[in-house]
Write a structure and sequence with these properties.
393 residues, alpha/beta
């Protein structure tokens, strides 16, 4: 909720500053022309959001679209619509004019798909799976409609042999077990330098065993259930496939013994992983970490970039020059150094490759909902003089 509040406040400030940036002059080499830029709302924004942070994901789109001056149609996930409907009630309460923010609920084919293809929706912003993103992009293309897509991820976390083990272990588990692993940017592929791999994994298991798994409303809970039965079964299938392909379930992989009801899965650590395995290549969207060892920096970078995705990536090392080299070498839209998953409303958020394109948050998030108009004025009292004037009678 703190992040939701911070996002609205941040874009309220940007909205107030937007008028001051209008009519920005363009430097021209010709004295008889003056040119400036207007930034205008793109129009009606179709906003389609995911279930993992339902109100926050909506806020990332609603706040900048309204700040830009757009009207918006928000379609939240059918699995988590209530907080977005509450947002609508609050908008009525605070006097937002009717029709500025519209919230529709329902399944994707009936409620989401029409937003992508509707001729009166001028732009679509989507957060969700890569497969759904492809369909939205296809539908929008028929109208030559701009889209921004924040899709899946299979982000790497590279840990070198010069680190404080426990400090790095905590970032590793935070990067994958936060929100039960239901995070698009989760650092779900852990790459360990071979010199510290055994020691690191021993501590990783010890930390994982210490995670409190419970009803999320219970004090001290650090791992709750996953979103639905469908997601629960999907995650279990990923784990069983990894085992059948020859990987080792080092820890977890089952229902916690003290929780007989609900869609709970233990934090799961999988080793002996090859780059051809499903667990290495596909997004699980659950509390499942796969681990590989590396020997050299170049090998670590090659393994990190061995993915169709490109949302996040992280490196932990006390060698800051190495961290800077790797941050440049990673093919991702976000890189964390000596941490994993900090999300700052002031900084751009988005990915490359099959993780989508466009950036949310920061000033880049506002630009998503603005168009740029050039205005140029002829300032001379003289005729332009391109054509020969007709002779006067």
């Amino acid at each position: 909720m703190d992040d939701v509040v911070a996002c609205f406040e941040y874009y309220a400030d940007l909205a107030e500053a937007l008028d001051g940036k209008q009519r920005s002059p363009i430097s021209l080499p010709m004295e008889n022309f003056k040119s400036y830029v207007l930034k205008e709302p793109i129009g009606v924004a179709g906003l389609i959001t995911a279930w993992n942070y339902p109100l926050l994901m909506a806020t990332w789109k609603v706040a900048p679209s309204l700040a830009a001056g757009c009207t918006a149609v928000l379609k939240p996930s059918e699995l988590a619509s209530l907080t977005c409907l509450e947002l609508g009630a609050i908008c009525i309460e605070v006097g937002l004019p009717p029709g500025v923010l519209n919230i529709i609920t329902g399944l994707g084919p009936e409620a989401g798909a029409p937003l992508s293809s509707h001729p009166h929706v001028d732009k679509v912003a989507f957060t969700g799976s890569t497969e759904t993103g492809k369909r939205i992009m296809t539908a929008a293309a028929q109208m030559v409609k701009p889209v921004s897509l924040e899709l899946g991820g299979k982000s790497p976390l590279i840990v070198f042999d010069d680190v404080d083990i426990d400090k790095a272990v905590e970032w590793a588990i935070f990067g994958i077990f936060l929100n039960a692993g239901q995070v698009c940017s989760a650092t779900s592929r852990l790459l360990l330098h071979e010199k510290i791999a055994k020691q690191f994994l021993d501590r990783l298991v010890a930390w994982a065993k210490n995670i409190k798994i419970s009803d999320p409303l219970e004090k001290g809970c650090r791992l709750g259930s996953v979103i639905s039965e469908g997601q629960y079964e999907k995650i279990k299938k990923f784990i069983s496939t990894a085992r059948s392909e020859g990987a080792t379930i080092l820890y977890g992989g089952a229902r916690p013994q003290h929780l007989r009801r609900g869609f709970f899965i233990e934090p799961t650590i999988i080793t002996d992983v090859s780059t051809s395995m499903q667990i290495w290549r596909e997004e699980v969207f659950g509390p499942v970490l796969c681990v590989k060892e590396f020997r050299t920096e170049s090998e670590a970078v090659e393994l990190a970039n061995d993915t169709h995705y490109g949302l996040g990536g992280a490196v932990i090392s006390n060698d800051q020059e190495r961290c800077e080299r790797i941050s440049k070498a990673l093919h991702s839209g976000i890189v964390w150094i000596n941490c994993s998953q900090p999300t700052l409303v002031q900084a751009p958020w988005g990915g490359n490759k099959r993780s989508g394109f466009g950036r949310e948050l920061g000033e880049w998030g506002l630009e998503n909902y603005l168009t740029v108009k050039q205005v140029t004025k002829y300032c001379s009292d003289e005729q332009w003089g391109w054509y020969q004037p007709p002779s006067k009678l």
